[in-house]
Amino acid sequence: MGPPCFFDAMNKVFIQTYGCQMNVADSDEMFAHLAARGAVLTDNLDEADTVLINTCTVRDHAEHRAVSFLGRLNAWKKEKPGRVIIFAGCAAQRLGKSLQKKYPFLDILSGAKDIEHFSDTLNASGLFGAPGASGQQPAPGLTGYVTIMRGCNFACSYCIVPSVRGPIKCLDSHDILQEAARKAAAGAKEIMLLGQTVNAYQNGPVTFADLLNRVSEVPGVERVRFTSPHPIYFTPEFLNAVKENPKIARHVHLPVQSGSSKVLQEMKRGYTREVFLEKIRALKECGFNISTDIIVGFPTETEDDFQQTLTLVDEAKFFIAYCYKYSPRQGTPAAQMEQLSQKVLEERLDILLNKVRGLSDTAYQAQVGTVQEVLLETENKGRSSSNFWVKTKNSYPVGSIVRVEIEKADGTLLFARD
Ligand code: 5AD
Ligand code: SF4
User: Fold this and answer.
1) Most Cβ neighbours (<10 Å): which of 162, 195, 409, 416?
2) Closest residue by CA, ligand 1 atom 5
3) Position 312 in a domain
4) Burial group, residue 365, by CB count within 10 angstroms (0-12, 13-18, 19+)
5) What is the CATH number of the domain that holds 119?
6) What are 288-315's pLDDT values in tens digits?
């Protein structure tokens, strides 16, 4: 007999996830522990008994949204005493116990570093039953997310991640392969390997390239993706090890952050503008399509530095660029520096957004006339290996791969001749 369970009927869980794909995978993992205690998912907050908020703190705005959502749950909880609120992830790690003082109705706090112990946290709360053998778990869908490493050993001067997630821990490669096989057996055709600096993976003799190749050999796996890599690990050895394997998807989300070598050094990114451009040249030669993240308004960024970010965007021909205003994070070196005004940040963001707006359309146009393998996510729409959306004329079984010629592009959709 486990501790008493306070839910007479089925415990319905509403999940609100903020932030990156790692968080989405972490939410799934936390839900699996709840499901093992008889919980089921709901997308209706009104009928939920438990709310799990998985949070992000990478920028102040993300943290603010998560905390405001928590604040609004006060009324929700008052409606039915016995309802449970779990606040987890990166903002939970950063804000810690101060949250429980400010929001006394919060039941369970579980920081990003504690995700491996989430089952113990649930047991210690006394609010859920003991875990059973067979929790109902949602099927993974076409893409199965598999976490391969946690944490980050870099110390980028603007970034709070190393302090909330801690240093790198690489998971055992056998466990990773088993998890990929489990997801593939449950219907996933594509496996997305996840980690904060995913291509820093190394466990004993197993490198990141080895892992990609091995996952691609798991029965049922048609395609392998990964996110988010760091530029410095894209070495010629890596490219040699993966370039002959067509199951490794030809898309990389590779954050550059700035186009100025001076700012990159102050950010402690570990590469220059020239090195970054050389890395993406080599990746493109192997067929990789590149998207990126850019920060504007880092404290030491001059007008000239910002111009260099704009010219880098021209040279790199990114597929997509996600652009952010620099947000000072407590305890990071850059937060101690003299800050630029919000006005400058907003002006630069505006200029950059105008510049990147047309990138995707241009990249889509360049696909016309090529032949692509499309993994169908509906009967007539899917994604190519390099991550373009493609619509087919005919219908095919969901999850199958079809080889089609691209007839035309309209905005961010390609049309196949099939
Ligand atoms: N301010 C603004 N953007 C940030 N990012 C990380 N830290 C900050 C910060 N302090 C951005 C980076 C990263 C993405 C996930 O968030 O571009 O790649
Ligand atoms: Fe943050 Fe840099 Fe680590 Fe990425 S590599 S998580 S930006 S410290």
Assistant:
1) 195
2) 58
3) no
4) middle
5) 3.40.50.12160
6) 999 999 999 999 999 999 999 999 999 9
